[in-house]
Amino acid sequence: EEDSIVRKSAILVCRELRGSHTFDVIAGEIASVHQRFNIQAKVVSTTTDNARNFVKAFSVFSGDNDLLPIEPEEVSEPDDADPESDDDQNNDENDDVDIRDLHEGLLLLSDQVAEDVMLPKHRRCAAHTLNLVATTDLKKVPAWSHRKSFKNTLKKCTDLWRKQNMSSAISNKIKTELGSKLPYPSKVRWNSLYDSLKHMSNIFTGEDKEKVRKLHALMDNVTGLDPFTAQDIDIIVEYVTVMTPIAMALDILQSEEYAY
């Protein structure tokens, strides 16, 4: 709403997309929904995640040039160019080659599939982009001296979460000793890795040091895992500290009402 800046949402349709989710199929489905509700001229932009098929669908069918690669400027030949060069010798052979703009070529190809498809401007989901920064891009940080240590610590956490989820006896023991089960990451929930490690960090940094002793005793005696070392604890606490601003931003962006 314009006055309260509260976001409103509604579901128009929910369809099963069978077969390969190629860019042209996705574009056709989106366009068909617009046509069904006669909103082609009303939709000013569409927000999706960063999947390549979505990005390509809109770059081809929306005419949104911002999403297309920028073609390099033509470079003129220097005055003293060698007339006997291979490029000059092949010029005559290439006279009949029809060079087309990449976008134009994709449109011509796509016209064979869906002549009436025209999509609005594309927006990439900011929440999904931030989530990629905190997960996928994190693994690509150059010259990260603690990369191996972080992976080892995360593996130890993952092994503990897996033990809890695979055994009701271990799960109940953890709940009894620590007061609650350990939250664990899920690929379908953003911030889930952060939330899980934050719970671990709270155990290590909390005033109740007995919880740390109980956790390590559980790992050693019940799960058969090595307890967390001082380095493991430092890595978990530092990860939570660094990722807290991103996690908070994600929570705000994903808010149904007050995203703005």
TrEMBL record:
Residues 71-96 have a biased composition (Acidic residues). InterPro entries: RNaseH-like_sf (IPR012337). Residues 65-96 are annotated as: Disordered. Signal peptide: none annotated. This is Uncharacterized protein.
